[in-house]
Write a structure and sequence with these properties.
By secondary structure, the chain is mainly alpha-helical. Helix content is 67%, strand content 1%. The protein starts with a strand and ends with a helix.
């Protein structure tokens, strides 16, 4: 069981996640500049670009559409970062988490479902066809990735014989779950991108729909929605560390440092890897998820169950 962090960690958590999201967005901007040969051959100069874009959005006036429902839309926008922070509450940094409930894995998955509702509400609020298309695209995306994602979460919990995140970490003291649960680990990483509707899974905000769920938002509304997406990416990538990469276990360095290094490595892999994959159409990913990922994760869970029963 992970130790509970002090009370001040509750206040610190949103700021720590926001700082991590800003760093990841800056890294993504650097990679984009390097790939495009921009910034006069000095891609590092692109690192502050996300912060400058955020400041510009702060100065923009909010946009209103005809017969919109601003409360519904803004509630959905606010719930995107809120769901990310609430999911992050069960993330152990080292061996200490803000909270470590007996159903921590289920809690994380529930916050993911909250993000579904949030994006759909954000898409419905402006009373715009393009925004609504974006919201429904995210629901379709959720139907595609959620089932194999749940099996991946279940497999890790099954290996630890517990839904408490701290006990999942403790069960990996000798061997990381990623070593003997590679299929579940790979599916979880794909789900991390899908949950954050980012990279190859950014169809809900697709250019073909003029920005989809975010099409009618400007100013602070747009900033909060897009920042929430980065927060979701950081949190889901970070959750792969206690689930599959041994949490804070590692030689020489303190536990928090191992957690930080592993999280940075996963985020670096996801951010760099996004450029290898095109944006996926959800009807095609649904077919791939149901025909390939679900059977693979079920076989992985069966293998883990056999190992657990034979201990």
């Amino acid at each position: 069981m992970a130790d509970t962090a002090p009370v001040w960690a509750v206040v610190l958590l949103p700021f720590a996640l926001a700082a991590a999201a800003a760093l990841v967005a800056g890294f993504d901007a650097v990679l984009a500049a390097a790939a495009g040969g921009g910034r006069r051959g000095r891609p590092l100069r692109a690192a502050p670009a996300p912060l400058r874009a955020g400041l510009r959005l702060l100065g923009q006036q909010p946009r209103r559409t005809t017969v919109d429902d601003p409360w519904l839309g803004r509630m959905g926008i606010a719930l995107v970062p809120v769901s990310a922070v609430l999911a992050g509450a069960v993330l152990p940094w080292g061996f200490r988490a803000v909270t470590d409930p007996v159903v921590g894995v289920v809690w994380f998955n529930a916050m993911e479902a909250l993000a579904w509702a949030a994006v759909w509400m954000a898409g419905w609020g402006p009373n715009s066809a393009l925004s609504l298309i974006g919201g429904y695209r995210f629901l379709a995306q959720g139907l595609a990735y959620e089932l194999p994602h749940m099996f991946a979460l279940t497999t890790a919990a099954l290996g630890a014989e517990s839904l408490r995140v701290g006990e999942v970490v403790a069960a990996q003291r000798g061997l990381w779950f990623a070593v003997w649960m590679p299929a579940a680990f790979a599916v979880f990483l794909l789900s991390a991108l899908a949950m954050a509707f980012w990279g190859p899974f950014d169809h809900p905000l697709g250019r073909d729909a003029a920005g989809g769920a975010a099409a009618e938002y400007a100013g602070v509304d747009r900033l909060v929605l897009l920042a929430g997406r980065w927060l979701l990416l950081v949190v889901t990538a970070g959750f792969s560390v206690p689930l599959f990469l041994g949490g804070g276990h590692g030689p020489w360095l303190p536990a928090w440092a191992w957690t930080l290094l592993k999280t940075a490595a996963v985020l670096g892999l996801l951010v760099a890897g996004r450029r290898l994959l095109p944006t996926l159409r959800m009807e095609r990913y649904v077919e791939f998820a149901l025909m390939v990922l679900v059977p693979v994760t079920l076989l992985q869970a069966l293998a883990v169950a056999v190992v657990v029963l034979s201990r």
